[in-house]
Description:
Elements: E1 8-12, H1 18-27, E2 32-37, H2 49-63, E3 70-73, H3 76-89, E4 94-96, H4 98-109, E5 114-118, H5 120-125, H6 127-133, E6 141-145, H7 149-154, H8 162-176, E7 182-186, H9 194-201, E8 206-209, H10 210-224, E9 236-241, H11 245-256, E10 263-265, H12 268-272
Parallel strand pairs: 1-2, 1-3, 2-9, 3-4, 5-6, 5-7, 7-8, 9-10
Helix pairs in contact: 1-10, 2-3, 4-6, 4-10, 8-9
Amino acid sequence: MSGDARCxxxxxxxxxxxxxxxxxxxxxxxxxxxxxxxxxxxxxxIKSNQTIxxxxxxxxxxxxxxxxxxxxxxxNTASAVALRDLEAALPIPVIGVVEPGAKQAVVxxxxxxxAVIATEATIASDAYRKAMEKYNSGSPVLQRAxxxxxxxxxxxxxxxxxxxxxxxxxxxxxxxxxxxGVIVLGCTHYPLLKTAIAEFVGPDIHLVDSGEQCxxxxxxxxxxxxxxxxxxxxxxxxxxxxxxxxxxxELGQRFLDHPVVDVTWISNEQFLSxxxxxxxSHA
Length: 283
């Protein structure tokens, strides 16, 4: 049987990358996915580029113990800051969330301005604007850091919560005055606020979920390299975290739309040890 049955490695600074995993599992239901959430060191959005890059390399070293066929950087901040460095250093394909989201935004903008909302580090990197330039976009790019969106999501506040609505209005009102045609949700937490954001901005503005576009890019690349898993049977999701697996399970259900069952805490010694061998993934 052709194809590649090896797993797909996915990582994020914490739990938000599960929105990317949700899309991957929807599109690729028989793939094995190994996820690492760096819950001990989240958030990445306020850290230096050097620190984010070091953390990303450490996580990729850990994920490579599972012999993945691809690593997905399901974190906008790490994608913006560390992706090029990871691509140069790793012998397997690496795909991030910035480039696919930027490409889709250009397609939808049709000359209108594009607004990017994300963490402080992603905005400071200017990664989305640079990515959009590759597609000869003539659209002005507006950028806005929205750091309170992450804690709002992790607190489980609903789209109709007055605090949620107030924070969205505070961040997005200045952008609305500039009449954008597209808003890029440049953080993997933000899709959980998509309903509330759409209600605020109205139906005429396209919302681009960078996680959805990343998942579509993974499918496209695996198919092009004949690396999809063609073995029969359902796939699996195995999660590893650097802190607080119970909280990860509780929050993860909201991000995945179903319970997160297989979560293992990895101590710092195990994480950095090259002799640690993770248990085999299982369904």
